[in-house]
Design brief:
With 149 residues, the protein is α/β, with parallel strands linked by helices. It has helices at residues 20-27, 31-42, 53-56, 61-73, 81-94, 98-112, 127-135; strands spanning 15-18, 46-50, 75-77, 118-122, 144-148. A five-stranded parallel beta sheet has the order 3-2-1-4-5, with helices on both faces. It is globular.
Length: 149
């Protein structure tokens, strides 16, 4: 088996934020996600996620044990009143439907309220980028850049 070194450039400080796909890849042992997280930690970034994200990534058996272990090592951010207000503003600013995009709005709002510079790991190419762009309308104009996986 040929081993490939993955090169991931992450700026020093800030937050690497995982959505459901990012966390799922990590739980499943994806080498690229492991490398991203390792480099982020080496560069002083917090690796964080919304408290709603583990609900999207539920597992059973050994995978559930791995999920629990990984969650104990990550910064799981609560859904606070500030997050809820920010999520509502993101939905309004982006024109997205709250029924369909509620979880994505909570994830992006939580990321936007995290320590900058924020990089959000996601496979969503429709709602997440719109919500990240809308985050710049929040107080302080937080920038949340998407890392596509």
């Amino acid at each position: 088996m040929v081993s490939k070194r993955l090169k991931v450039k992450v700026q020093s400080g800030g937050t690497l934020f995982l959505d459901a796909q990012g966390l799922s890849l990590h739980v499943d042992g994806d080498e690229g996600m492991r490398a991203r997280i390792e480099v982020a930690e080496q560069n002083g970034r917090r690796v964080a996620l919304s408290a709603v994200t583990p609900l999207e990534v539920r597992r059973t058996g050994d995978a559930a044990k791995r999920l629990a272990f990984l969650l104990s090592r990550l910064d799981v951010k609560p859904v606070t009143d500030d997050v809820i207000r920010a999520a509502a503003k993101l939905l309004d600013a982006s024109g997205l439907d709250g029924h369909e995009c509620l979880v994505d709005a909570l994830v992006v709002a939580t990321a936007a309220l995290s320590a900058p510079q924020v990089r959000l790991v996601s496979s969503d190419a429709s709602h997440i980028p719109k919500l990240c762009q809308a985050a710049e309308t929040l107080p302080g104009s937080p920038v949340v850049k998407v890392i596509s996986v």
